[in-house]
Amino acid sequence: MVHRRRTGETLKGKERIPAPAATGGGFRVRIPNGVMIFEAGNNAKKADGTYELRDILHRSPYVKIQQGKKAYRIPLAGNPALDK
Fold this sequence. Notes:
Number of helices: 1
Order of helices and strands: HEEEEE
Helix content: under 10%
Radius of gyration: 14 Å
Strand content: 25-35%
Largest sheet: 5 strands, antiparallel
Structural class: mainly beta
Distance between the termini: 13 Å
């Protein structure tokens, strides 16, 4: 889990850039050598009751840290992936 104080220090004074709608909303913050993308997730279900997304990480809040070609996805508070 991302530590709130550390995240707040990272974001202090940074420009927030709205993330594209195709990614589920959220916003981006530029960091040295990359970007942090905060996503709300997509908890939508299909008509048959199954989730549109199989991966539980992407169903609830998470942050994606991209540096070059490497990407790290970290679940945030309220994400069921933290319970696993």
